[in-house]
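Page 47, continued from p. 46.
Same chain as before, 158 aa.
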Amino acid sequence: MDIAPLHIKREAIAIIPEVAVDEDHGEVVDRLRAQLDSDPLCTNVILDAFSNLTLDSLLLIDVADKVMDLVRSAEPNDLPVVVRYLVQSCSGSAELAVSTVAALRKNLNFFSASDDDDGKGTDQGQTLTLEALRSGLLTFWLILGSAPRGCFGLAEQN
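Result:
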């Protein structure tokens, strides 16, 4: 994929989850992680592909660690997608959720030397990142809140 134009790379990566069988998802993730290192312009589509693949818990933690490394170096336009992926990926594990939130608090820095001249691009990136974080956490809390109600509803039916 190194010689393909950017738009072709993005299209190819976007369809991978649809055509890859579950048994190949580990190898697909390895290749996508390598692509993430070599081509940061494909960050958004790679994270979408990760979201649409079936990952076991160890692979999910490994990918989340890799994506967490992106928080410090991500472009302002990519940061909302990175944060959204991290928050969504931790929703199945309390341990992963705690470590993800701690890492986001540590690594998320809105005050950088690379601010735009007028600041509008950076402000929009910050706003989108905070919205992604808020939305992901709200979803997480709604899931947590509905779990006990679902359990009590099942107990009442029996």
